[in-house]
Amino acid sequence: MGHILVIDDDEAIREMLRRLLERNGYRVTTAEDGREGLLTFQQESFDVVITDVLMPEMDGIEIIMQLLNQDSNVRIIAISGGGRIPSNEYLHLAGELGALRQFVKPVNKDVLLGAVRELCGSSLETTIPGG
Question: pTM to 2 decimals?
Answer without folding.
Answer: 0.89
